Request: fold
Amino acid sequence: YQYMSPASLLHRAPPEGSGNTPSNVCMPGLAWGSWKEFHIESSKSFEGRELCDCFRPEGAWDPSLERRTEENRFLFIPEANASV
Reply:
């Protein structure tokens, strides 16, 4: 969640120097029911500003699955000239 936390803050309150920031909302992966649903729905929360090139195998964790896990996310906020 090293990406989701700052990206969520930037999306909800682009830097403007006011010092006022809303609470940070970081969604836990399996709260959505599946990894696929997490990738789709969490990406939607950025209202079209994020590209999620993500895949994680479903099922119980196994070390062999780690090599097949991808989570590449990109966020662009044009009005703040910011990207993550």
Q: What stands out?
A: DSSP finds two helices and three strands in the chain.
